[in-house]
Amino acid sequence: MSKHVIPAPQAHSIPTSTGGTFPVRRVYCIGRNFAAHAVEMGHDPDREPPFFFQKNPNNLDASGEFPYPPHTSDLHHEVELLACLKSGGTNIALDQALDHVWGYGVSLDMTRRDLQGQMKKMGRPWEIGKAFERSGPVGPVKPVSEIGHPDQGRIALHVNGELRQEGDLNQMIWKVPEMITYLSEYFELAAGDVIMAGTPAGVGAVVKGDVMEAEIAGLGALRVQVI
């Protein structure tokens, strides 16, 4: 008999290309990890210590539809590589970091930019602009055994057929193994943790009815309509 005083929340998972699902424990998102994006957001592109914010596991959504959220008039798209961990630990050595990755996918970090901007000015956390319902559209996660560890290749996003974002994974300031090592110094990573690895320049607003098509070389495309 359960000792819970309320029904236990359902564990969240996202699809994989294998037919199974990947259970999500935590979602770590790195900020300003492409130099050109740092510049467009008004920051120095020089390599500085990385910083992270978090989304909630159930923010990740594979439905292909993104409901326009309330309390914003400046909703932005950000295409990102998603790295999914099969194991973890603390103080993970750099040369062992990729051993903990199960697979990779295409994702979007949808952002209420106006609310995020307000929080920045007030010195407050960003979650109201980042961690809202279905704010992390994702495609199927592909296992390392199928695609290896993508560290270069085109990353791009079109809106209604118009190219908005374009870059290369090799332009990431902090690479996936470096992010894993850094995070493991401050958190105990574990199976089910995912990392959203940052976005290239060209972020911009979308409105209801827009169709976003994100792609990463070797990982395929993700099509999401704003509803």
TrEMBL record:
Coiled coil: none annotated. Pfam families: FAA_hydrolase. InterPro entries: Fumarylacetoacetase-like_C, Fumarylacetoacetase_C_sf. It comes from the Bacteria. GO terms for molecular function: acetylpyruvate hydrolase activity; metal ion binding. Keywords: Hydrolase, Metal-binding, Pyruvate. Residues 27-226 form the Fumarylacetoacetase-like C-terminal domain. This is Fumarylpyruvate hydrolase. The lineage of its organism: Bacteria, Pseudomonadati, Pseudomonadota, Alphaproteobacteria, Rhodobacterales.
